[in-house]
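Researcher: Please translate sequence to structure tokens.
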Amino acid sequence: INILTSPNFSPVCVGEKCASLALLALLSPLRERGCWGLNPSSGDLEKSPHSDPDPWEVLHRHKRSWVWNQFFVLEEYTGNEPLYVGKLHSDVDKGDGKVKYVLSGEGATSIFTIDENTGDIHATKRLDREAQAYYTLQAQAVDRLTNLPVEPKSEFVVKVQDINDNEPKFLDGPYLAGVPEMSPLGTMVVQVAATDADDPTYGNSARVVYSIIHGQPYFSVEPKTGVIRTALPNMDRETRDQYVLVIQAKDMVGQMGGLSGTTSVTVTLTDVNDNPPRFTHKSYQYTVQESLPVQSVVARIKAVDADIGSNAEMDYRIMDGDGPGMFNITTDEDTQEGVIILLKPLDFETKSIKVTVEDVNEPPVFSATLSRMVVSEDAKVGTSIGKVSAHDPDTSNSAIRYSIDRNTDLERFFNVDALSGVISTAKPLDREANSVHNLTIFGIESQDPAQIGKGIALITVLDINDNAPVFAIDYETLLCENAMPGQVIQTISAVDKDEPLSGHRFYFALAAPVAGNLNFTLRDNKDNTASILTKRGGFRRREQPVYRLPVLIVDSGSPALSSTNTLSVRVCDCDSDGVALSCGAVAYTSTGLSTGALLAILGCIITLLVMVLLIVTMRRRRKEPLILEEERDIRENIVRYDDEGGGEEDTEAFDMVTLRNLNVIRDPNVRRDVTPDTPTFFHYPSATRPSYKSLPDNVVFREFIWERLKDADVDPSAPPYDSLQTYAFEGSGSVAESLSSLESLSTDSDQNYDYLSNWGPRFKKLADLYGNSDGTSVFS
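Model: Translation complete:
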């Protein structure tokens, strides 16, 4: 018989279940191989394989007809119809109606029923996990006609799945505790503990956190341990000696929607000796008769001490004046009064006794050390919240000015009127950021500013519904491809930053655009949770790997607020136990290629890519310049000019032959503004002026310079200031005269260049230009 689990639940491994599954996994192969000697199909005992000589019988393997599994049933099911648990099916059942199913064991027929034709199991009553956590049942398939079993019985377990239906409880509450007054901040007071009857191994139903509902700002509680500590230093017993705290324990790790329980903790401040005794009057005056005997009681005086017990026991002494030697003072243990006794006889008719108490300047005293005030979260700036009052206890009765200790109001949410003591809001308030403000108010004497009294104003911010509910956590919802219709795939809850007095009530629904979708539906569980169920089966990752489901959550505030939260549902490939193996999109692969072939192709592609990268890397290294590209300035610009320089072939700009040829006859223009008078070393007529070649070398250069100087003087375009003149004059001492190619075309040469033809093809061009044997010019 195959046992199919309920579509509402996926098997999970929790506690004993893990051990059962592991043991079954070890024993199932033994059972398949017949090591127990039991035929799973017939139920008859067989011979041990070791005693059977037939090797075929030894190697024979019987197919299992029963597949064991575990069923889950949700406790406290409130539906009108019986709750579907699971399905039994036998391989012997061919669907012809010859096999019927029988159920026996704990709760059979009274709680669990089975359809003898289909094998469907239902629960007909509400189950309570805290009363019974699981039921052990036996299933059997029998022949409908003979009522004989066609298979042996198979035992399985129906486990009741926990829901959060039990609130935490303080079994030892209420608590009484004490702590010394003036204890430092963080002093431990007492530890409280709450227990939750829900399953601690499943979810967060039994995970409890502690918080303080009433008792702030004097005490605090550690969320995980429940240890209560003092939250304010210097708490004075004489001001207030007892505090009643309300401690809350909330399951679901404190999330909204969790159940909670409360207990009270009465904390008493024990006394320490922190107050001096004080006389009720400034002075006392008594009249004593002369005849009063010695050791008689003259008077009784009493001082008051705010402390109690041994800390309030008095010890009186006479400090100065006429008292020492004449009078003595003792303490009455019962009344704690000071008894003045006469030590010596009086030698006069009467004598007055005056007891004087010195006055000490004391700081202002607030009429109420703690002033409680409330203000709405939406109060406008400037709203009056309450008033504090203080007075000067001294006889001077100085006026009091008020101010706020800004160390207790760092963000300056409040102001106090210096004269009247009225406290008002100075900024908009947010209860979700800070629900209680603990202000220290200074009362300062006008005449003596060094005298400062302190009072506490405890301001509680009242909540308004200004936050919409949202998902409690970021849910990761997985949907198996083999999921059945009506299967619960996710249970969601919500949180809201607001704290209404009546508690939270959330309403869940699918957003309007997807309310009629064919894939999923939502069921509001009416306990601030909701279940997401499938409407159909046959989900495929290849068709759609992820579904987005918008969920509308509405709170019960006034006015009600709502938000739309998106639940992502990923389709997964799961094993037979419903455990997800892989989720998300599936890459399309051809049915003609096996996995091995695909891996081989992928390996070849990776190898080719690696080779290409290596080749590219080697080429880049070879071409790497000495100066890295990164060091070049990317802002460089290349400016191209198409204007070529003059050079030796440029005959358009000026006549360089004239510049370099000293024998050229010049006809300089006479300068208009200067009459030239250039001296020369040789005076000769211009008509008979000799050539430079006939002059001595030392004269040639002088004449050349003077000639150029004269030309510059008579040049009307020359600048009227000193300038540098450069002349490329090579002199006339060379036999070959000037070597410049500028004059090579105007002179004849008898040099023979025919040998250039024998120098090879590289000199062919020169040979053609200069090596003509017929002596004809190449330019003719």
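Researcher: Any highlights?
Model: Helices lie at 16-32, 55-59, 595-622, 656-660, 697-714, 764-770.
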